[in-house]
Amino acid sequence: MIRFERVTKRYADGTTAVDDLSFEVAEGELVTLVGPSGCGKTTTMMMINRLIEPTEGKIFVDGEDISQVDPVQLRRRIGYVIQQVGLFPHRTILDNTATVPALVGWKRAKAKARAAELLDMVGLDPKKYGSRYPDQLSGGQRQRVGVARALAADPPVLLMDEPFGAVDPVVREQLQDQFLEMQASVRKTVVMVTHDIEEAVRLGDRIAVYGQGRIEQFDSPGAVLGNP
Ligand code: ADP
Ligand code: ADP
Protein backbone atom coordinates (compact mmCIF):
# COMPACT_ATOMS: atom_id res chain seq x y z
CA MET A 1 0.00 0.00 0.00
CA ILE A 2 2.89 2.36 0.84
CA ARG A 3 6.30 1.96 -0.76
CA PHE A 4 9.46 4.03 -0.38
CA GLU A 5 12.10 3.61 -3.07
CA ARG A 6 15.51 4.99 -2.11
CA VAL A 7 14.06 8.11 -0.55
CA THR A 8 16.36 10.84 0.76
CA LYS A 9 15.29 14.12 2.37
CA ARG A 10 17.80 16.91 2.81
CA TYR A 11 16.52 20.13 4.34
CA ALA A 12 17.64 23.53 3.04
CA ASP A 13 20.23 23.86 5.83
CA GLY A 14 21.92 20.64 4.67
CA THR A 15 20.49 18.33 7.35
CA THR A 16 19.93 14.85 5.91
CA ALA A 17 16.81 13.78 7.81
CA VAL A 18 16.13 10.62 5.78
CA ASP A 19 18.94 8.82 4.01
CA ASP A 20 18.32 6.46 1.07
CA LEU A 21 15.34 4.76 2.69
CA SER A 22 13.38 1.89 1.10
CA PHE A 23 10.55 -0.01 2.73
CA GLU A 24 6.99 -1.19 2.20
CA VAL A 25 3.85 -1.22 4.31
CA ALA A 26 1.22 -3.77 3.29
CA GLU A 27 -2.48 -3.03 3.04
CA GLY A 28 -4.13 -3.27 6.46
CA GLU A 29 -0.80 -3.37 8.24
CA LEU A 30 0.01 -1.23 11.29
CA VAL A 31 3.65 -0.18 11.28
CA THR A 32 5.17 1.78 14.12
CA LEU A 33 8.23 4.00 13.59
CA VAL A 34 10.30 4.15 16.75
CA GLY A 35 13.62 5.76 17.65
CA PRO A 36 15.19 8.74 19.36
CA SER A 37 14.16 12.31 18.66
CA GLY A 38 15.57 13.78 15.47
CA CYS A 39 16.20 10.51 13.58
CA GLY A 40 13.73 11.20 10.76
CA LYS A 41 10.44 9.59 11.80
CA THR A 42 8.26 12.66 11.37
CA THR A 43 9.98 13.57 8.11
CA THR A 44 9.29 10.04 6.79
CA MET A 45 5.64 10.30 7.69
CA MET A 46 5.06 13.78 6.34
CA MET A 47 6.44 12.75 2.97
CA ILE A 48 3.60 10.22 2.65
CA ASN A 49 0.96 12.94 2.47
CA ARG A 50 3.26 15.41 0.68
CA LEU A 51 3.53 17.87 3.54
CA ILE A 52 7.26 17.39 2.87
CA GLU A 53 8.72 16.55 -0.56
CA PRO A 54 11.61 14.09 -0.88
CA THR A 55 14.90 15.35 -2.30
CA GLU A 56 15.50 12.03 -4.05
CA GLY A 57 13.62 8.79 -4.60
CA LYS A 58 9.98 7.86 -5.09
CA ILE A 59 7.03 7.13 -2.84
CA PHE A 60 4.05 5.07 -3.96
CA VAL A 61 0.64 4.91 -2.32
CA ASP A 62 -1.65 2.19 -3.64
CA GLY A 63 0.62 1.76 -6.63
CA GLU A 64 0.62 5.44 -7.61
CA ASP A 65 3.73 7.62 -7.61
CA ILE A 66 2.49 10.36 -5.28
CA SER A 67 4.62 13.06 -6.89
CA GLN A 68 2.06 12.77 -9.72
CA VAL A 69 -0.98 13.03 -7.45
CA ASP A 70 -2.55 16.34 -6.48
CA PRO A 71 -1.74 16.83 -2.76
CA VAL A 72 -5.34 17.75 -1.89
CA GLN A 73 -6.65 14.58 -3.59
CA LEU A 74 -3.92 12.56 -1.90
CA ARG A 75 -4.81 13.85 1.58
CA ARG A 76 -8.43 12.78 1.14
CA ARG A 77 -7.14 9.23 1.08
CA ILE A 78 -4.84 9.72 4.05
CA GLY A 79 -6.07 10.51 7.56
CA TYR A 80 -3.61 12.39 9.78
CA VAL A 81 -3.54 12.48 13.58
CA ILE A 82 -0.98 14.55 15.48
CA GLN A 83 -0.08 14.89 19.15
CA GLN A 84 -1.84 18.19 19.76
CA VAL A 85 -5.05 17.64 17.88
CA GLY A 86 -6.31 20.97 16.55
CA LEU A 87 -10.06 20.99 17.11
CA PHE A 88 -12.18 24.01 16.24
CA PRO A 89 -12.81 25.56 19.67
CA HIS A 90 -16.19 27.10 18.80
CA ARG A 91 -17.68 23.98 17.28
CA THR A 92 -19.17 21.04 19.14
CA ILE A 93 -17.47 17.67 19.20
CA LEU A 94 -20.05 16.31 16.77
CA ASP A 95 -19.47 19.20 14.36
CA ASN A 96 -15.71 18.87 14.69
CA THR A 97 -16.00 15.22 13.70
CA ALA A 98 -18.49 15.93 10.89
CA THR A 99 -16.24 18.55 9.28
CA VAL A 100 -14.50 16.23 6.88
CA PRO A 101 -17.59 14.43 5.50
CA ALA A 102 -19.18 17.86 5.12
CA LEU A 103 -16.11 19.02 3.18
CA VAL A 104 -16.29 16.08 0.83
CA GLY A 105 -19.84 17.04 0.00
CA TRP A 106 -22.06 14.92 2.22
CA LYS A 107 -25.47 16.16 3.25
CA ARG A 108 -25.52 17.57 6.78
CA ALA A 109 -27.70 14.85 8.29
CA LYS A 110 -25.61 12.09 6.75
CA ALA A 111 -22.37 13.76 7.92
CA LYS A 112 -23.71 14.04 11.48
CA ALA A 113 -24.88 10.43 11.54
CA ARG A 114 -21.46 9.34 10.35
CA ALA A 115 -19.79 11.57 12.99
CA ALA A 116 -21.90 9.99 15.76
CA GLU A 117 -20.94 6.52 14.53
CA LEU A 118 -17.24 7.47 14.55
CA LEU A 119 -17.38 8.96 18.06
CA ASP A 120 -18.97 5.75 19.24
CA MET A 121 -16.23 3.77 17.53
CA VAL A 122 -13.46 5.65 19.40
CA GLY A 123 -15.28 5.18 22.70
CA LEU A 124 -17.02 8.54 23.13
CA ASP A 125 -20.76 8.31 23.60
CA PRO A 126 -22.09 10.81 21.02
CA LYS A 127 -25.18 11.51 23.13
CA LYS A 128 -23.06 12.47 26.09
CA TYR A 129 -20.15 14.22 24.40
CA GLY A 130 -21.37 15.23 20.93
CA SER A 131 -22.79 18.56 22.04
CA ARG A 132 -19.80 19.53 24.20
CA TYR A 133 -17.01 21.87 23.12
CA PRO A 134 -13.33 20.84 22.93
CA ASP A 135 -12.38 22.65 26.17
CA GLN A 136 -14.99 20.55 28.00
CA LEU A 137 -13.11 17.34 27.24
CA SER A 138 -9.97 15.83 28.77
CA GLY A 139 -6.78 15.60 26.73
CA GLY A 140 -7.36 11.90 26.12
CA GLN A 141 -10.91 12.51 24.95
CA ARG A 142 -9.72 15.20 22.56
CA GLN A 143 -7.24 12.72 21.08
CA ARG A 144 -10.13 10.33 20.50
CA VAL A 145 -11.97 13.05 18.62
CA GLY A 146 -8.83 13.57 16.56
CA VAL A 147 -8.81 9.89 15.61
CA ALA A 148 -12.56 9.95 14.83
CA ARG A 149 -12.10 13.00 12.62
CA ALA A 150 -9.15 11.46 10.77
CA LEU A 151 -11.31 8.42 9.99
CA ALA A 152 -14.32 10.46 8.91
CA ALA A 153 -13.70 10.37 5.17
CA ASP A 154 -12.91 6.63 5.51
CA PRO A 155 -9.36 6.94 4.18
CA PRO A 156 -7.53 3.68 3.47
CA VAL A 157 -4.36 5.10 5.07
CA LEU A 158 -3.93 6.63 8.51
CA LEU A 159 -0.81 8.51 9.62
CA MET A 160 -0.39 9.10 13.34
CA ASP A 161 2.40 11.18 14.90
CA GLU A 162 2.69 10.39 18.61
CA PRO A 163 -1.11 10.28 18.80
CA PHE A 164 -1.14 9.19 22.44
CA GLY A 165 1.94 11.11 23.55
CA ALA A 166 0.32 14.01 25.36
CA VAL A 167 -1.71 12.06 27.92
CA ASP A 168 -0.86 10.32 31.20
CA PRO A 169 0.17 6.63 31.16
CA VAL A 170 -3.21 5.24 32.31
CA VAL A 171 -5.19 7.15 29.68
CA ARG A 172 -2.52 6.30 27.16
CA GLU A 173 -3.06 2.61 27.71
CA GLN A 174 -6.84 3.04 27.38
CA LEU A 175 -6.38 4.89 24.10
CA GLN A 176 -4.03 2.20 22.83
CA ASP A 177 -6.52 -0.56 23.72
CA GLN A 178 -9.37 1.29 22.11
CA PHE A 179 -7.31 1.92 19.04
CA LEU A 180 -6.31 -1.74 18.68
CA GLU A 181 -9.93 -2.79 19.04
CA MET A 182 -11.00 -0.32 16.39
CA GLN A 183 -8.16 -1.25 14.05
CA ALA A 184 -9.19 -4.91 14.31
CA SER A 185 -12.51 -3.97 12.70
CA VAL A 186 -11.56 -1.19 10.23
CA ARG A 187 -8.13 -2.54 9.18
CA LYS A 188 -6.59 0.70 7.94
CA THR A 189 -3.04 0.82 6.68
CA VAL A 190 -1.45 2.69 9.58
CA VAL A 191 1.94 4.35 10.01
CA MET A 192 2.43 5.54 13.59
CA VAL A 193 5.37 7.49 14.97
CA THR A 194 6.29 6.98 18.60
CA HIS A 195 9.43 7.41 20.67
CA ASP A 196 8.15 4.78 23.11
CA ILE A 197 9.42 1.29 22.31
CA GLU A 198 6.75 -0.29 24.52
CA GLU A 199 4.02 1.44 22.54
CA ALA A 200 5.71 0.50 19.26
CA VAL A 201 5.83 -3.17 20.20
CA ARG A 202 2.35 -3.24 21.69
CA LEU A 203 0.63 -1.70 18.67
CA GLY A 204 2.75 -2.56 15.66
CA ASP A 205 2.26 -5.54 13.37
CA ARG A 206 5.81 -4.62 12.43
CA ILE A 207 8.19 -2.09 13.92
CA ALA A 208 10.64 0.11 12.04
CA VAL A 209 13.49 0.90 14.42
CA TYR A 210 15.19 4.11 13.33
CA GLY A 211 18.78 5.16 13.61
CA GLN A 212 19.98 8.44 12.12
CA GLY A 213 17.93 8.84 8.91
CA ARG A 214 17.68 5.08 8.40
CA ILE A 215 15.62 2.09 9.42
CA GLU A 216 18.01 -0.23 11.24
CA GLN A 217 15.53 -3.03 11.87
CA PHE A 218 12.09 -3.67 10.38
CA ASP A 219 10.49 -6.68 11.95
CA SER A 220 7.74 -8.25 14.07
CA PRO A 221 7.38 -7.33 17.76
CA GLY A 222 8.81 -10.70 18.82
CA ALA A 223 11.88 -10.29 16.64
CA VAL A 224 12.47 -6.70 17.79
CA LEU A 225 12.21 -7.68 21.45
CA GLY A 226 14.38 -10.75 20.95
CA ASN A 227 17.09 -8.72 19.28
CA PRO A 228 16.95 -5.19 20.66
P1 ADP B 1 9.65 15.17 18.24
O1 ADP B 1 9.63 14.34 17.00
O2 ADP B 1 10.84 14.90 19.11
O3 ADP B 1 8.36 15.18 19.00
P2 ADP B 1 9.48 17.49 16.51
O4 ADP B 1 8.85 16.59 15.51
O5 ADP B 1 8.81 18.74 16.89
O6 ADP B 1 9.85 16.69 17.84
O7 ADP B 1 10.92 17.86 16.00
C1 ADP B 1 11.87 16.85 15.78
C2 ADP B 1 13.22 17.48 15.60
O8 ADP B 1 13.20 18.32 14.46
C3 ADP B 1 13.62 18.34 16.78
O9 ADP B 1 14.98 18.10 17.05
C4 ADP B 1 13.37 19.75 16.30
O10 ADP B 1 14.24 20.63 16.93
C5 ADP B 1 13.66 19.62 14.82
N1 ADP B 1 12.93 20.55 13.98
C6 ADP B 1 11.60 20.63 13.82
N2 ADP B 1 11.29 21.61 12.98
C7 ADP B 1 12.47 22.15 12.59
C8 ADP B 1 12.84 23.20 11.74
N3 ADP B 1 11.91 23.91 11.10
N4 ADP B 1 14.11 23.49 11.58
C9 ADP B 1 15.05 22.78 12.21
N5 ADP B 1 14.79 21.77 13.04
C10 ADP B 1 13.51 21.48 13.23
P1 ADP C 1 11.95 12.69 14.49
O1 ADP C 1 10.52 12.74 14.04
O2 ADP C 1 12.52 11.32 14.46
O3 ADP C 1 12.15 13.36 15.81
P2 ADP C 1 12.43 14.59 12.36
O4 ADP C 1 12.01 13.91 11.11
O5 ADP C 1 11.50 15.58 12.95
O6 ADP C 1 12.84 13.49 13.42
O7 ADP C 1 13.81 15.30 12.12
C1 ADP C 1 14.93 14.65 11.48
C2 ADP C 1 16.10 15.62 11.38
O8 ADP C 1 15.74 16.67 10.50
C3 ADP C 1 16.48 16.30 12.69
O9 ADP C 1 17.87 16.45 12.69
C4 ADP C 1 15.78 17.62 12.62
O10 ADP C 1 16.45 18.59 13.39
C5 ADP C 1 15.83 17.92 11.14
N1 ADP C 1 14.72 18.76 10.67
C6 ADP C 1 13.40 18.53 10.79
N2 ADP C 1 12.69 19.48 10.18
C7 ADP C 1 13.60 20.33 9.66
C8 ADP C 1 13.49 21.52 8.89
N3 ADP C 1 12.31 22.03 8.52
N4 ADP C 1 14.63 22.14 8.52
C9 ADP C 1 15.82 21.63 8.85
N5 ADP C 1 16.00 20.50 9.56
C10 ADP C 1 14.89 19.87 9.97
TrEMBL record:
<keyword id="KW-0813">Transport</keyword>
<protein>
    <recommendedName>
        <fullName>ABC-type quaternary amine transporter</fullName>
        <ecNumber>7.6.2.9</ecNumber>
    </recommendedName>
</protein>
<keyword id="KW-0677">Repeat</keyword>
<dbReference type="GO" id="GO:0016887">
    <property type="term" value="F:ATP hydrolysis activity"/>
</dbReference>
<dbReference type="GO" id="GO:0016020">
    <property type="term" value="C:membrane"/>
</dbReference>
<keyword id="KW-0067">ATP-binding</keyword>
<keyword id="KW-0547">Nucleotide-binding</keyword>
<dbReference type="GO" id="GO:0005524">
    <property type="term" value="F:ATP binding"/>
</dbReference>
<feature type="domain" description="ABC transporter">
    <location>
        <begin position="2"/>
        <end position="228"/>
    </location>
</feature>
<dbReference type="GO" id="GO:0015418">
    <property type="term" value="F:ABC-type quaternary ammonium compound transporting activity"/>
</dbReference>
<dbReference type="GO" id="GO:0031460">
    <property type="term" value="P:glycine betaine transport"/>
</dbReference>
<comment type="similarity">
    <text>Belongs to the ABC transporter superfamily.</text>
</comment>
